[in-house]
Amino acid sequence: MSLRVLVVPDKFKGTLTAREAVAAIVEGWQSERAGDVFETLPMSDGGDGFGDVVGALLGAEQRTCATVDAAGRPRNAEWWHQPSERVAVIEAAQVNGLTLLPRAAYHPFELDSFGLGEVLAEAQRAGVAHVYVGLGGSATNDGGFGLARSLGWRFFDERDRELRSWTELEGLARVSAPESFLPFERITVAVDVENPLLGANGATRVYGPQKRLAPDELPRAEACLARLARIVAPELALAAGAGAAGGLGFGFLAFCGATLEPGVAAFARLSGLERRIASADIILTGEGRLDRTSFMGKGVAAVAAWTARAGKPCWCLAGSVDPAHAADAPSSFRSFSSASELGVEWERASPHERLRALAALAASRAGVVAAAQLP
Q1: What is the Cα–Cα distance from 269 to 39, expressed in whole angstroms?
Q2: Do 29 and 360 meet the contact criterion of CB atoms below 8 Å apart?
Q3: CATH of domain 4-43+272-372
Q4: Helices within the chain (DSSP H only)
Q5: What is the rounded distance in angstroms from the CA atom of residue 190 to the CA atom of residue 91?
Q6: Given 86, 131, 178, 366, which residue has the most CB atoms within 10 angstroms?
Q7: Shortest CA distance to 70 belongs to which of 38, 102, 30?
Q8: What's the average model confidence in pLDDT over 250-279?
Q9: What kind and span of H or E run contains 176?
Q10: What are the phi and psi torsion angles at 303 (to 5°)?
Q11: What secondary structure does DSSP assign to 69-101, as a single string?
C-alpha cells in the first residue's frame, strides 16, 4: 500500500541545504518505495537558509544588494522581494554570516552588523511594508550596534566623543536617535534560539566561544552589551530571543521596533505545516546532528510535536544521533543515523549519497507504517 509522505527537513549544517536534503531523502526513499506519494517542504527555523525557504513560500523573487559583510568587506547580499504583497525576506547570514569569513581570519571584536542596514534601506526603496528577517548564523556579537549605526543612531561617551566600535560601549553615556526611522509597517524577526541578551544564558556566554571569544575576553564583551542595554532599553534585554545572533535580536527590538517570533513558528504559519501533517501518513524530517538541544525550540522538535498531536509517525534522518535525545522526544518519533546505521563503505561518500542511502534504509522498514493504514 502506498504512503503519503511529507518530507520536511532542516539544513544539515555545513553540508546540505534544506532543499538539497529534501532531494536526497526523496531519491533514497523512492528507490525502495516507488509507489509512495511525496509532498516536499524544505524547512528553516530562522538560521542559514531562511531567505531561500521563506522566500519560496511567499513566492518572492531573489534580488541582490551591494553592502558589506561583518568585516566591512564589499559583498552582494541576496534578499527576497514579493512586490504585490509589499513583503521582503532578509537573511542576516547573507550579510554578516560566520560562513562568509575566512576561517580564523577575524576576531569578533573586529566585526559588526553594519551591513544589514543597507539591505533594509534597499527594501525601503522598493516600497516594502512588511519585512521578515532570519537571524541565525551570525558572526557578530555586537548587540545590533552596527545595525543601529547604519540606520543613523549615534553613540557617545561622557566626553561626548562618538563611539564607532561596539568594544567601546563600556564607556557609553548617551544615544542619539535618527531624525527619521525606516517606514516599515512591520518587521518580524525569526529567531532560532530563546536566549536573553545577558547573563549565563546570554549571547556572549553561550555563543561567544563559538565565534572565537576567549574565556578572558567574555567579561569585556558582556560588559559592553550590558552597558548598551542599560542606556538604550534594559527591559528588552530580558526578551526571549534578544540574545539571538550575538544580540541582534535585541538590536532589532531596540533600534527597529521589530517583533521577535520563534523561527519554527513563523515557518509553520507561512507553510501551513499542521495542515500538511494532517494529510500525510508519515512525516520525514532531518538535520545534521540530533541531540537534546534539537528539542529546545529547533525545527525538528516542532515537527515532532505537531506530528505527535496529529497521531502520525515522525522519522528523523540525521548525520549523527545522541541517544540522550530520546528523553525529550515523543513516542511517535524515531531516529536514523548515517554514522551508526550505514556501513564503513559509506564513510567517504558525499553528504548527498549518505543521506540518500539512509533514506533508502528507512524506507525499507516502512512496511509497518503501510500496514497500519489498512482497514
Answers
A1: 17
A2: yes
A3: 3.40.50.10350
A4: 18-32, 50-57, 93-96, 116-125, 145-150, 203-207, 218-232, 244-256, 263-271, 273-278, 299-310, 338-341, 351-364, 367-372
A5: 10
A6: 131
A7: 102
A8: 95
A9: strand 172-176
A10: -60, -45
A11: -TTS-EEEEEEEEETTTTEEEEETHHHHBGGGS
pLDDT tens per residue across span 215-229: 999 999 999 999 999
Rounded to an integer, the average pLDDT of 278-292 is 93
| CA dist., res. 266 & res. 269, Å (int) | 5
Distance of CA 80 to the CA centre of its chain: 16
| pLDDT greater than 90 at residue 285 | yes
List CB contacts of 335: < 8 A, sequence separation 6 or more: 290, 315, 316, 317, 318, 321, 325, 329
What grid cell was written down for 46?
Answer: 530562522
Cβ atoms of residues 74 and 68 within 8 Å: yes
Phi, psi of 5 (to 5 degrees): -110, 120
Q: Which three cell numbers stand for residue 35?
A: 509507489
Count of residues for the chain? 375
Model pLDDT for residues 230-240, shown as the tens digit of each residue: 999 999 999 99
Tell me how far apart the alpha carbons of residues 76 and 63 are, in angstroms, rounded to a whole number: 10
**HEC states along 5-45?**
EEECCCCECCCECHHHHHHHHHHHHHHHCCCCEEEECCCCC
Show the cell assigned to 74: 564589499
Q: What's CA 213's distance to the chain center, in Å?
A: 21
Q: How far apart are CA 220 and CA 368, in angstroms?
A: 57
Q: Where are the domains of the chain?
A: 4-43+272-372, 50-264
Task: Name, in order, each residue with C-beta under 8 angstroms of 103's C-beta and a sequence gap of 6 or more.
Answer: none
The CA-based angle 125-126-131, given to 5 degrees, is 100
What sign for the dihedral angle of Cα 157, 159, 163, 169? negative
CATH of 50-264, one of 3.90.1510.10, 3.40.630.30, 3.30.470.20, 3.40.47.10: 3.90.1510.10
> Could you please report the per-residue DSSP string of 211-227?
GT--GGGHHHHHHHHHH
